[in-house]
Amino acid sequence: MKTYQGLYKHNGVIIPIKLCNNGKELSVEIEGRLFVGSEFTDLTYHGDLFDLDSSIFTLTDDGYSALCYCQIELFIPQVLSVENGNNKIVDLCLCTTIGAFDFEKSTITEEAIVLSLSLNEETYIGKGDTIEVAFDQLTMRLPKGETFVNCYGCLYGDYSVYGNSAFGTMLCFKHVKSEYQAVRGKDEYMDLCEDYSDKLEVVQEIHCCESFVMRGCGGAYR
Questions:
Q1: Which residues pair with 127 in a beta bridge?
Q2: pLDDT in tens, 133-170
Q3: In terms of domain of life, where is this protein from (predicted)?
Q4: DSSP codes, 59-77
Q5: How far is CA 72 from the centre of its chain?
Q6: What's the CA angle centered on 78, arms 124 and 87, to 5 degrees?
Q7: Which of 81, 48, 23 is nearest to 202 (CA)?
Q8: What is the pLDDT of residues 53-111, one digit of tens each?
Q9: What are phi and psi of 52, to 5 degrees?
């Protein structure tokens, strides 16, 4: 279980928080109220709805009662590989914006992730509607030779051809390494995902394990 320090922001209210992450599920207690989910847009409330202060919380009106119309800012320790081959621990700032709930469309109006990293008096930023896009931008702006040692930066981390959510739906191919590296083209990749579906894991982009291999320009799909 990892714990990240951060801030919860809603309509001018700013509350310090600690978000817990077990690699599959996120949980955060805000003003004594517990919210749990697999990603930021489904942090659902576990408690009596009549207890909530509407000046602090807005929830989706879809039966799930997930946090919306807010920002969550977290400081996440990550490993950065630098040009001389050494690794160092850095604090990656992740800020996610969750828009208001649109009842007619039964969805939130906005979802955005901004990643920022301060190195040597410079701040590097990446942003997008998914953490993949935000990481893509951020890594392109880092000094030459520097890259993240995490699932996003790993050779065996990839995504479904049918798309991915904003956070935490990366596919890990570490159990079929040779088959994954032998793939050529989208059709072969789709076949691989179907044939070895029982050997694939769903991981968070910010996770890392002992099977990590620097991605470089490799990879079957992304």
A1: 114
A2: 999 999 999 998 899 999 999 999 999 999 899 999 99
A3: Bacteria
A4: B-TTTT-BB-SEEEEEEEE
A5: 12
A6: 95
A7: 23
A8: 999 999 999 889 999 999 999 999 999 998 777 899 999 999 999 999 998 888 889 99
A9: -80, 140
Cα distance between residue 45 and residue 26, in whole Å: 12
- Nearest to 148, CA basis, from 180, 121, 126: 126
Average pLDDT over residues 11-25: 97
Q: Which residue has the tokens 């409330």?
A: 45
Tokens describing residue 206: 């910010």
Measured torsion, CA atoms of residues 89, 90, 91, 94, in degrees rounded to the nearest 10: -110
Closest CA to 69 of 53, 55, 57: 57
Residue 92, token pair as written in the block: 């990656």
Which residues are CB-neighbours of 45 under 8 A, at least 6 positions away?
Answer: 33, 34, 35, 52, 57, 59, 65, 66, 67
DSSP secondary structure letters along 6-62:
EEEEETTEEEEEEEEE-SS-EEEEETTEEEEESSGGG-EE-S-GGG--TTT--B-TT
